[in-house]
Write a structure and sequence with these properties.
With about 325 residues, the chain is an alpha/beta fold. It has 13 helices and 10 strands. Bound molecules: 2-acetamido-2-deoxy-beta-D-glucopyranose (NAG).
């Protein structure tokens, strides 16, 4: 009996995802998992994107997230290189994530080469399949994953992962995978907690990374829902605990080991977001319960490219469009 219990526990522990890295690991640490908080760059443009990324690194950010779809990889890469210089650190101190766009599913190697050329970097730390479907409305996630598995050996990326997959698509990949996806990036915020999905990914050893962690702040998200940062529950908890609304919603995800990558091009916002751990320490169980009520009903803000192309995205998950 005792032995069985130990075995069961051991299996459970092994299957858990690796601990997240600190937001700012000590200089000279090449993180083996995502830093707990980083910078998103969708809608960061031009020289502003370069300045914002460089400033973030100076302020202690060590995770920068981009994608060829954001049309800013040249500027983001320049910001990474400038930030590294200004902060007096080296490339291995910063974790850079980018993603394979849907039109490149037949050639992830070529897609990654293009991304590296745009970024002006020798490698990325993490390369994700941005969406499970490729050209022609087909879900080609399994063969695409098998091509992705060849990439870590090229040293062009340290890790590979997935984004926007449904639970069934994650299963499809795990069935054939010789390399387990390191990370799954999905939309997560108090309007869309997806608790069961997050827990099952983490139990399978996959690190969960939230996009849109501040909810409907991005102009891309057209929704009549109250802005999450204006929500009365969030505002009242923020004022009771001496936090800002952004810190409350980021802390809520961080408390369940979900990595957050809020976009911020203003220095004040970057500083506010990176100070979230002090707020997380002040949230009570009662606060978290109140925040859980916000998702009734749920809201999902990312619909493109699914809605526009009539792809069946997010099957078996909270829809909440
Ligand atoms: C980016 O642009 C915004 C205004 O659009 C500005 O407030 C911000 O300071 C800029 N960021 C940096 C780091 O220069």
């Amino acid at each position: 009996m005792q032995l069985f219990l130990h075995l069961a526990l051991a299996t459970f522990v092994v299957a858990q995802s690796e601990p997240l890295a600190a937001i700012t690991p000590p200089k000279g640490t090449q993180a083996t998992n995502l830093p707990a908080l980083g910078l998103g760059t969708w809608y960061a443009k031009g020289s502003n994107a370069t300045a914002a990324v460089a400033q973030a690194i100076v302020d202690g950010y060590r995770l920068i997230d981009t994608s060829p779809f954001y049309n800013n990889q040249k500027e983001v890469g320049a910001g990474v290189r400038e930030g590294i210089k200004r902060a007096g650190i080296s490339r291995q101190d910063v974790w850079v994530t980018s993603k394979l766009w849907t039109t490149k599913h037949s050639d992830p190697n070529g897609g990654l080469k293009e991304t590296l050329a745009e970024l002006g970097l020798d490698y990325v730390d993490l390369w994700l399949i941005h969406w499970p479907m490729g050209p022609g409305n087909t879900f080609d996630h399994v063969p695409t994953w098998q091509k992705m598995e060849k990439l870590p050996a090229t040293k062009m990326t340290r890790y590979i992962g997935i984004s926007n997959f449904s639970p069934a698509q994650v299963k499809d990949v795990l069935k054939v995978a010789t390399i387990k996806p390191k990370v799954m990036q999905i939309e997560l915020h108090p309007y869309l907690p997806q608790e069961d999905f997050v827990a099952s990914l983490q139990k399978q050893g996959i690190t969960v990374n939230a996009y849109a962690p501040l909810g409907n702040t991005n102009p891309a998200y057209k929704s009549s829902a109250t802005k999450l940062l204006q929500h009365s529950t969030i505002r009242s908890i923020a004022s009771a605990r001496g936090c800002t609304p952004a810190q409350v919603v980021l802390a809520w995800n961080m408390k369940r080991s979900v990595v957050v990558i809020p976009k911020a091009v203003q220095i004040a916002h970057q500083k506010e977001n990176i100070a979230t751990p002090a707020c997380a320490a002040k949230l009570t169980a009662e606060d978290l319960e109140k925040i859980a009520q916000i998702s009734n009903p749920p809201h999902r803000f990312m619909s493109s490219p699914c809605a526009s192309n009539q792809f069946k995205c997010f099957e078996g998950t909270t829809k909440g469009f």
